Amino acid sequence: MTLNFTEFRKRASRNINIDLSSYKTKRVKRRINSLMDKNDIKDYNECLDLLKTDKDFKKEFLDHFTINTSEFFRNPKNFNYLKEEVFPELFEHNNKVKIWSAACSDGSEPYTLAIILNELGINPRRFEILATDIDHQILKTAKKGIYNENSVKKTETAILNKYFTEQNDRYVLDPKIKNKVNFKQHNLLTDSYRSKWNLILCRNVFIYFTKETKKKITQKLSNALIKDGFLFLGNTEYLLKPDSYGLTKEYTSFYRR
Ligand SMILES: C[S@@+](CC[C@H](N)C(=O)[O-])C[C@H]1O[C@@H](n2cnc3c(N)ncnc32)[C@H](O)[C@@H]1O
Fold first, then answer.
1. What distance in angstroms lies between residue 190's CA and the mean position of ligand 1's atoms?
2. Domain identity same for 115 and 194
3. Could you tell me if 37 and 84 lie in one domain?
4. Is residue 70 one of the residues assigned to a domain?
5. More confident residue, 17 or 139
6. Could you tell me if 177 and 96 lie in one domain?
7. Ligand 1: which of 59, 65, 66, 220 to mutate, judged by most atoms within 8 Å of the beta carbon?
8. In this structure, are 139 and 238 located in the same domain?
9. Structural domain total, the chain
10. Domain termination site, one of 16, 42, 65
């Protein structure tokens, strides 16, 4: 039987343990087709066989599918709001502030938080940063804490000089900052969520999900927040009706539970 795209997607999802139907169809199709072209794979049957039998191909398939683009201080205005408004409020009202960076990619995002908290002079015993991603490989990169110039292009020079050491065109993050973030693998679609977070960042991953998935995940994230906790989304990821998730909009990309 020749597999059509829908059937292939179903079977490939089982194989890679990621429900591909939760992601936007057009994008998934485009990325799979480009990978097939690149590897001279003639049809979905052959692609599925390779997924089942060739570990290297399976890895390439997963790498091709997850887009890990990130950078330190991505959308600086938002991180400024976090520093000036959100963190002061959270630390005024809570002895310990629990922060979850979901879909954290290479760690630039959670490490940005650790840098800001250090700049604010907050005692590390007063916060916890958990950073998660579905992608094993990118978590390994994150734990290394070594970046290229592109990752730090939005970082102010003073911060760059204070927290990074330059080695052969690479930027090595200060171990004191690295130690403040815990990394763990987590799939937003299938794994359970810890609750009572004061702040959750879930940025630039909704763009890949279908509308239904986005709604489901937003509700789960909202439920995982403590009252008066904040959800921080990507700049292009608006919630049209935040109140339907028990949230109110505070500022561009910030929603309060
Ligand atoms: C574009 S990056 C965003 C990184 C960072 N949050 C930022 O805004 O700079 C998207 C990340 O989402 C991750 N991702 C995709 N699907 C996921 C899922 N179901 N659960 C958790 N992470 C997922 C990818 O592995 C990738 O690292």
1. 14
2. yes
3. no
4. no
5. 139
6. yes
7. 66
8. yes
9. 2
10. 65
* Owning domain of residue 83: 76-256
The answer to whether 71 and 150 are in contact (CB under 8 A) is yes
Q: How far is the CA of 37 from the centre of ligand 1 (A)?
A: 25
DSSP single-letter state for residue 85:
I
Per-residue pLDDT of 134-166, as tens digits, reads 998 999 999 999 999 999 999 999 999 999 999
Residue tagged 């763009």 (tokens): 207
* Per-residue pLDDT, 66: 79
Share of the chain above pLDDT 90, in %: 88
Residue 236 domain-assigned (yes or no): yes
Longest dimension (CA), the chain: 63
Residue 52 to residues 58, 190, 252: CA-CA distances in angstroms?
8, 22, 44
Residue 196 alpha carbon to ligand 1 centre in Å = 22
Same domain flag for 61 and 84: no
Confidence of residue 68 (pLDDT cuts 50, 70, 90): confident
Q: For residue 248, what pLDDT is reported?
A: 98
* Same domain? 82 vs 61: no
Write the CATH number for 204.
3.40.50.150
Computed over every residue of the chain, the mean pLDDT equals 95
The token duo for 223 is: 């439920």
Q: Which helix (H) or strand (E) holds 57?
A: helix 55-65
Least confident of 63-77, 151-165, 169-183, 194-208: 63-77
Residues 59 and 86 placed together within one structural domain of the fold: no
Residues 159, 154: Cα–Cα separation, whole Å? 10
Task: Choose the residue to mutate in 133, 139, 152 for probing ligand 1, maximizing ligand atoms within 8 Å of C-beta.
Answer: 133
**Which residue puts its alpha carbon closest to atom 26 of ligand 1?**
68
Query: Which residue ranges have their beta carbon within 6 Å of ligand 1?
Result: 66-70, 74, 103-105, 109, 133-135, 138, 187-189, 203-205, 234
Same domain, 41 and 88: no
The whole-angstrom distance between residue 193's C-alpha and the CA centroid of its chain comes to 14
